[in-house]
Amino acid sequence: MNCRWTLRAAKGRWMVNISQQCSHGSIGLFVPPSPPLDPEKIRELQRFITLSKRLLVMTGAGISTESGIPDYRSEKVGLYARTDRKPIQHGDFLRSAPVRQRYWARNFVGWPRFSSLQPNPAHWALSNWERLGKLYWLVTQNVDALHTKAGSQRLTELHGCMHRVLCLNCGEQIPRGVLQERFEALNPTWSAEAHGLAPDGDVFLTEEQVRSFRVPSCRCGGPLKPDVVFFGDTVNPDKVDFVHRRVKEADSLLVVGSSLQVHPHCPREEAPNCNT
Ligand SMILES: [Zn+2]
């Protein structure tokens, strides 16, 4: 059983609604077990939210597990615990056409499910806070577009978004859905069964399945990449500056669903040792 919670305004106070709901099926598989909620901790959170005047919220993969996306680091249910697979590395993607082919073949299979996932009550709560003027800014490490689907606008997607694709040569952007149609046109008889979904929409495929998959290029001939920051890459410095300014303007910071083990300044894989 997992506890679902939502936060809402009630008579000027910020209430935490707790409802015990069982999460079963594929969604429940990715939700880590949690200890029973401590009423005092909930009151503390209510006080914190009530007193905030300019609240900045930062979210990580943990907020999306109840939408059916596994996180990386949770015990037993996170990607690192369930598989020996590591996320794709930025340098490998740039250097190697076979790596890109494998990436896109897997991503093609995972896309219909990944793109259809929906926000859960935590995403909706943050969107409501924005509508009510309670949330000053939202920063997410997630690339799943679930905050956007919930209607959040005062939002920075620190690591980009899987719903956009860009050309590594000319920089042109296209919606990911358009690329899916091009994949389908190029691979009319290709089919593969998905074996599990990763936080970035990736799935697992065999080498034979991958080798016959055809990947389109940009109109300029350049390779295509999702508009996300892969491990080993760094976040755009302008984006980092922008978030720093929002943090300075805020009077309180709430972190939801992140282990904070990845530092946005740093190459993602080296983050734990980076102090800049
Ligand atoms: Zn191009």
UniProtKB/TrEMBL annotation:
Keywords: Metal-binding, NAD, Transferase, Zinc
One of the record's GO molecular function terms: histone deacetylase activity, NAD-dependent
GO cellular component: mitochondrial matrix
Domain Deacetylase sirtuin-type intervals: 35-276
Xref: Pfam families: SIR2
Domain of life of the native organism: Eukaryota
Gene3D superfamilies: SIR2/SIRT2 'Small Domain (3.30.1600.10), TPP-binding domain (3.40.50.1220)
SUPFAM superfamilies noted in UniProt: DHS-like NAD/FAD-binding domain
Residues involved in Zn(2+) binding: 167, 170, 218, 220
Record-linked PROSITE patterns: SIRTUIN
Active site positions: 159
InterPro entries: DHS-like_NAD/FAD-binding_dom (IPR029035), NAD-dep_sirtuin_deacylases (IPR050134), Sirtuin (IPR003000), Sirtuin_cat_small_dom_sf (IPR026591), Ssirtuin_cat_dom (IPR026590)
Name this polypeptide is given: NAD-dependent protein lipoamidase sirtuin-4, mitochondrial isoform X2
Organism: Panthera pardus
Gene designation per UniProt: SIRT4
